[in-house]
Amino acid sequence: MSNTPHLERVAIDLGDRSYNIFIGEQLLNTASTWADLPKASAALIVTNDTVGPIYAERLRAALAPLYKHVHTVALPDGESHKDWQTLNLIFDELLGKGADRKTVLFALGGGVVGDMTGFAAACYMRGVPFVQVPTTLLAQVDSSVGGKTAINHPIGKNMIGAFYQPQRVVCDLDTLQTLPQREMSAGLAEVIKYGPIADMQFLDWIDANLDALLARDPKALAHAVKRSCEIKAWVVGQDEREGGIRAILNFGHTFGHAIEAGLGFGEWLHGEAVGCGMVMASHLSQRLGLVDESFVSRFTALIARAGLPIVGPKLGADEYLHHMRVDKKAEAGEIKFVLIDKPGTAIVRGAPDALVAQVIDDCCEKKERRS
């Protein structure tokens, strides 16, 4: 084991379901990272066939002194596998190994692994403890934090799931060094999101430090992950189950989820769809008189600089609207959008279908997504 590295902590305050996010380097193989977790005779590492060969053995070695048995299951990689069939691979492993209700699950991977492991933990024996060990930027700044767990249905994204909080989130920044550049850009979409909805100074910082983030500068990454987690912790602490303010975290997601469902899950990465969706949502905010053209132009330029698509796939307005009506935020068939009320503040509201269709047509005109 290495000496204890510098560690940042962000607390999620949810009463008896409170937990910490650990952020730092060399955390996977640092003994103190895993101290004070629930006691059990067995642990199960859930990973995928991309991340597993790189990091699973390191995590297994770190957990071996704490658990008599450390099992591993590797799922197929990708959003297209976020379904019942793949979820059952986790249950098959738990049941096959005789796992009891104290068995601790460790989600080692990106957002798909984290969502599926959390949902499996919520369901197995009506609830077993789990720990998030996110290895992508998107998962570290968003999906691993806050207890949303789910799988997809062919008709809608994340429509089958549960709110179920982890025991801890461990963001080892070293894992970001092995991310493909496309995944890095996808993660930046969820970092950028926090600026317009909550903290324009953070958006200014991202704008100034985007090249360093793309180059994986450790100090820049550490700040981006910590500030993102702080904002999400502040929101989740007020509204764990998305009855109110938590919905602002879905900025760009109504359009983005429609892109993912319309193209087929996995064709675009989630962060790519969210990045493009935020551009569309900012245009809708402008059409409703909430923000001016200069904000939309600046924001769109930042999304493009991050390596994200700014032009949506030409599915047609009717197809977009169809998928939006089965979005979780829709109420009695009315589509709800997260819009920028003024830079740094978001609201959730409806908009006329005709205006939304106009925005879709304008943001998906004739251009094809960059490869």
Low-confidence stretches: 367-371
Share of helix among residues?
40-55%
Distance between the termini: 42 Å
Mean pLDDT: 94
Number of continuous helical runs: 12
Helix/strand-derived class?
Answer: alpha/beta
What's the overall geometry? globular
Strand elements, count: 11
- What is Rg? 20 Å
Question: What is the percentage of strand-forming residues?
Answer: 15-25%
- Order of neighbouring strands in the sheet with most strands: 4-3-5-6
Plain-language structure description:
By secondary structure, this protein is of the alpha/beta class. It contains twelve helices and eleven strands. A four-stranded parallel beta sheet has the order 4-3-5-6, with helices on both faces. The chain has a three-stranded mixed beta sheet with strand order 1-2-9, covered by helices on one side. Strands 7-8 form a two-stranded antiparallel ribbon. Helix 5 packs parallel to helix 9, helix 8 crosses helix 11 and helix 9 packs antiparallel against helix 10. The N and C termini lie far apart (42 Å).
